[in-house]
């Protein structure tokens, strides 16, 4: 498998090899064939390319790029591409990225827009995870530069000790658990969690009895058809017992956000803590306190945990659905200035493939950049009418960090420790208190992520708080353009939070 061209500098180096016999828009009735992942990218590409391009989108209108599963027909679309655009920064689900990297022709540029946007003036911000739990928020991660973006890293449980059973699973947005390992079923090489490079995910950790557990994990990297071992480590958990008595002098991991992380470059397996940095697993005890006790849901799909209603110790995944991402927020376009950078990357990429169209692409680009400048001003003015105390965002999806950063808002979060089950009275109370403490006038749901919004809708409606709509990853059905989307978002924010637009 080839390594995709993910930077324009790399693309320029290869320019002499790109489609020297290509008819491009000048010699093909269909125009330059472009494959893209999302409707947003299609919109920008069609504006810049005009009638010189023919754009095919893989994720359908209203689809979620975080979870879309490609089909054989999608592979055919991508295989026709003379240039391909993804957002990446782990916005798209890994199978979608692999679809592009496997099927885009060898001589066609395969461009990750977000990674290329910074030299054109885009501002990248970290994906801040500030959910506050009563326990440590523990996930799995991968880091390192010695892999292509379509590589896969498998992490499996190779050994464990403890007084009861342990399970690690993820609950999707529709309430179905995906079990990565469950010691009650024994250990199997097939039981593994798979991640792309430089990603991490949040999972549920459960233990059936109090006591000290050890879990030994091993990681393997599969890339370009070859597989190699990455690292192994043993992690210690104090479940319902005093963690300071388990290993005197050890660092107790009992709050904040941390990942058990495989380092592809060094072969180490370590703990990466947001506040404390890199930690040696042998010097850490992970605290699973008595306050982490939850009841096993009655739903049949959770029977693998034990008898319904029985108590279980759980470190929760704390976010709705599958949540694999990197350390940089990939939703750059919620800041209009970043969308301008995307447009410039697209224009330059089309010129590389179809130099005869330079005049058209540059004219379309410049006209659209002027429209985006006006849009940026319009969005800023609409949000500026919101009283400063009301500029709080509570949403179902962490897609609006750039909007908040660019236009003077603050993103607030909420916690539902087990998103699959009906919320307990305690969980509803916690969310109610969050909304009351912030004195928000509205909460926001994304129309294409309706299934994730039930808890937020319930509590908001109980509190007499408006439930409003924001478009994040998908364009509005009625007016499917980026400019329309951002205008609608700005208007909805202003309307729902006390502004006058």
List keywords for this structure.
ABC_LPXTG_lipo_actinobac, 12 helices, Rossmann fold, 3 domains, 501 residues, 25 strands, six-stranded mixed β-sheet, 27% helix
Please give a structural write-up.
- It contains 12 helices and 25 strands.
- With 501 residues, the protein is α/β, with parallel strands linked by helices.
- The strands form 6 sheets. A 6-stranded mixed beta sheet has the order 17-16-15-5-10-21, with no helix packed on it. Strands 9-6-12-13-18-14 form a 6-stranded mixed beta sheet, with no helix packed on it.
- It is globular, with a radius of gyration of 24 Å.
- The relative contact order is 0.14.
- Mean pLDDT is 85; it is low at 1-29 and 414-423.
Lay out the secondary structure.
Blueprint: H1 8-13, H2 24-27, E1 32-36, H3 39-49, E2 53-57, H4 72-79, E3 83-86, H5 94-103, E4 110-112, H6 113-117, E5 137-143, E6 152-161, E7 166-171, E8 177-182, E9 192-195, E10 200-202, E11 204-207, E12 211-223, E13 226-239, E14 251-253, E15 257-263, E16 269-273, E17 277-279, E18 284-288, E19 293-295, E20 311-315, E21 324-325, H7 336-353, H8 358-384, E22 392-394, H9 401-407, E23 410-412, H10 425-438, E24 442-445, H11 454-462, E25 466-469, H12 482-496
Parallel strand pairs: 1-2, 1-3, 3-4, 5-15, 13-18, 14-18, 22-23, 24-25
Antiparallel strand pairs: 5-10, 6-9, 6-12, 7-8, 7-11, 10-21, 11-20, 12-13, 15-16, 16-17, 19-20
Helix pairs in contact: 3-7, 7-8, 8-12, 10-11
